[in-house]
Each structure stands twice: as C-alpha cells, then as structure tokens.
Amino acid sequence: MSVLSDAEIEEIRHEMALYEDPQAATIEALNVVQNHRGWVSDESLEAAAEVVGVTPTQMEAVATFYNLIFRKPVGRNVIMICDSISCYLTGYESVRDHLKTSLGIDFGQTTSDNRFTLLPICCLGNCGNGPAMRVGNDYHGNLTPETIDTILADYV
Ligand code: FES
User: Fold this and answer.
1) Which atom belonging to ligand 1 lies closest to the Cα atom of 124?
2) How many other CB atoms sit within 10 Å of the CB of residue 38?
3) Which atom, in ligand 1's list, is nearest to the CA of 131?
C-alpha cells in the first residue's frame, strides 16, 4: 500500500494527464505531496516516483534542483528571504538580522511554536522591490524591519 493518500495519488495522476510524457509531471507530483504534508519525506518521494513512473533517484534529482521543495520538516509558514544582489544592495542585511532576532532562530531553523521556518533563497524575481521575501506562497517587497513585524502578524 502506498504511503500517499488516495487524494494525493489522484492529484498526481491528474497532473500527469496534462503532459504528453507523464513523467514530465515529477515537479508537480512533489508539489502535490508538499501541499498535503508540508514537506517531502524519503518515503513520500519514493511513493510519488512510483506513481509517476520514474526512479527515486530521478525524483530526488528534481527535488534537489527546486529549492521550493522541502526535504525536511518545516514550520507552518516558511519565510524565504532573498540574498541576491538587488536585495543585498537595498537593505537585505538589516532585514535578515531583524528576522533572526525577532524570531529567535537562524537560517534553516524553525521557531519552537512551529510557526515559522527561516531560509535564504536566491532571487525571487521581485528585484525591483527589494529587499524581498516570500512567506508561504505570498511575495512581499520593499521590506524594512518595521514592516516585517506587521507582515508576519498575519501568519499564524
Ligand atoms: S535580487 Fe532579490 S528578488 Fe531578485
């Protein structure tokens, strides 16, 4: 029996049907699992690979390439702060320091209440509005230490 739920398998098969080559749906399969579970364990990855028809190694390669696929447990809200050049020049360091201090965690860590995980990321494609971060699926720009607290208050 698969470790994936019937709903997960059904969603993955739906994604596969959208491609001429069903194996092209590997990233979508990983996203389906992550949407259901918050992250992708080894067991889930292997089960998703079986559904898609690729080897676990092929699936792992895709998961490694996309830094939005989490291979370890994360908090309810994942904060990804851009550390690329435009954001760096517009105040990344003060925003990063404020996040670390106010959350009491470093990169790669999760708050003790499981509310936030903090990760660095390369360019979010929001370069004209740096410093920029993504919280869950939401993009925020023109960050300052002051606006960050207001933004994060909306995430429980
Ligand atoms: S450099 Fe930060 S979003 Fe592009």
Assistant:
1) 3
2) 15
3) 2
pLDDT, residue 68, reads 87
Residue recorded with tokens 């429980």? 156
CATH code of the domain occupying 6-65: 1.10.10.1590
| Residue to mutate (ligand 1; options 123, 129, 142, 143; most atoms within 8 A of CB) | 123
Q: In the chain, where does the domain assigned CATH 3.40.30.10 lie?
A: 77-152
Q: What is the pLDDT of residues 54-109, one digit of tens each?
A: 999 999 999 998 888 999 999 999 999 999 999 999 999 999 999 999 999 999 99
Number of C-alpha atoms within 13 angstroms, CB side, residue 116?
22
CATH 1.10.10.1590 in the chain, residues?
Answer: 6-65
Report the distance separating Cα 84 and Cα 100, nearest Å. 18
Superfamily the domain 77-152 falls into: Glutaredoxin (3.40.30.10)
Cα of 133 vs centre of ligand 1, distance in Å, is: 9
Q: Which is the closest atom of ligand 1 to the Cα of 126?
A: 3
